[in-house]
Write a structure and sequence with these properties.
12% strand, transferase, binds 3'-deoxythymidine-5'-monophosphate, ATP-binding, globular, nucleoside diphosphate kinase activity, dTMP kinase activity, EC 2.7.4.9, 212 residues
């Protein structure tokens, strides 16, 4: 059951707007943890490799149109299809670094106008992260970084709405990181906190479920 006291890996989530740097930071974290001798994997959501993930990917590429509720549930289903593997990895002692998770699911859909409680409901029962980082950047600054790839949500006006939703959702447990700092500085902040969290999990911190 979820209360088992065996040594387990930590579930770490990185969230933020497009171009906030979370993808680079996720892979730096993996290297850093490996360097400390930990077993660690980098996962990202959406996971575009599954059947559901391919539907999401073509929606994001504007190749298909879907009702806002429908795509919301597909993003959630894409997490549910990975849930049992996620739990077994964690229980076997592997730490998982997630590039986006349920918070993206809620922030992006609520930014479109969907009801927040409706958006949160299908996430209930997924594994709760041990640590959530929010890489904080002004939408305008993120847009200046360039490299929006032309996917559906990569537009300044929409990113501003997503940013507001993240601000609404975040609580005291989140680690807010200034994403405009130099990469090395951010990396230092993140890896210190992650190593601490990994230690807590190894020492028996119980796994819990959304929404805590
Ligand atoms: P990437 O550019 O990081 O691949 O994200 N999104 C993501 C949602 O709308 N709901 C979700 O549940 C998740 C995980 C964020 C692709 C885009 O999909 C959005 C950006």
């Amino acid at each position: 059951d979820l209360k088992s006291k065996e040594s387990r890996g930590a579930l770490i989530v990185l969230e933020g707007l497009d171009r906030c740097g979370k993808t680079s930071q996720s892979s730096r974290l993996v290297s850093s943890l490996e360097g400390h001798g930990h077993s660690v994997e980098l996962w990202r959501f959406p996971d575009r490799t599954t059947g559901v993930g391919q539907m999401i990917s073509s929606y994001l590429a504007n190749q298909t149109q879907l009702d806002d509720h429908t795509i919301h549930l597909l993003f959630s289903a894409n997490r549910w299809e990975k849930r049992s593997l996620m739990e077994s990895k964690l229980r076997s002692g592997t730490t998982l670094i997630l590039d986006r998770y349920s918070y993206s699911g809620v922030a992006f859909s609520v930014a479109k106008g969907l009801d927040i409680e409706w958006c949160k409901a299908p996430e209930k029962g997924l594994l709760a992260p041990d640590l959530v980082f929010y890489l904080d950047i002004q939408p305008e600054k993120a847009a200046e970084r360039g490299g929006y790839g032309g996917e559906r949500y990569e537009q300044l006006e929409f990113q501003k709405k997503v940013s507001q939703q993240y601000q609404m959702m975040r609580d005291q447990s989140w680690e807010i990181v200034d994403a405009s700092l130099p990469m090395e500085e951010i990396e230092k902040q993140l890896s210190g906190l992650v190593l601490h969290s990994v230690e807590l999990c190894h020492n028996g911190r119980p796994l819990s479920q959304l929404w805590p």
